[in-house]
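In this section we walk through a basic example: taking a raw amino acid sequence and producing a predicted 3D structure, encoded as discrete structure tokens. The instruction is simple. Fold the sequence below.
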Amino acid sequence: MVVLNGYKAVKDGIITHSEEVSGRPLTPFYRDMMGEKGIFLTSGHTWKQQRRFGMTVIRTLALGKNNLEHQIQAEACILIQVVGRKIKYFHFSAEKVQREIEAVLEPSHLISYEDRKKLPYTNAVIHEALRYSNVTSVGVLRQCVRNTTLLGFHIKKGTLVLPNLHSVVYDSEHWATPWKFNPNHFLDLDGNFVNKEAFLPFSAGHRVCLGEQMARVELFIFFTNLLRAFRFQLPEGVKEINLEYILGSILQPHPYKLCAIPR
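The resulting token sequence is shown next.
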């Protein structure tokens, strides 16, 4: 097995040599957990057909009068009305996000994904939350479908490859303060939003998460609506929460409570 650590190695494996490292080994663990079917475990021709079908379905959902974004907007409005009981706590200056939203958007404005271009700090906070609170413990095993070379090393067909995505989002060569929540990672000196190549919470290459775009739209619309409508604070008497994660197939936060106060 070859483990890819850091952005340089992971990029070479799953982006530069995406086709060569696109296989998925059917290990006993995966077989017992998920069976032998589905886009997650298949490889080769079957996987390509399933991936093509999945992408077609997602594109179809994004089109039409009642498209996916409109449905997400409707769900966000309902959420604001009932106030969801659970929300992950982002350790940041919520007031700055709220000031930006108030300065740019009218109170009656229906928030859309396009609005992210006018809300650089809000967009940066969401991206930093995905980076700092990355739910991927390491990554999912891949397999070389043919002989290849990674960082100058010859890798034989059939070799198992583990891209450590966790090491990418905490790579000190690409993040000024990798172990600190810092929205400035995604802002330039003028406060404009900037994309970072080492931002890979959804993986990359041929095996990138098919639901990435939907997740991005949902996160922005829900987060922005919630921060516009509520002020979040810890319950009385609670000074801090446990920011460590619970290790499992994914990294999960410890349970806690928040108070949502209408603004």
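Looking at the output, two observations stand out. The longest strand covers residues 160-163. The two ends are 53 Å apart (CA to CA). In the next section we compare this with other chains.
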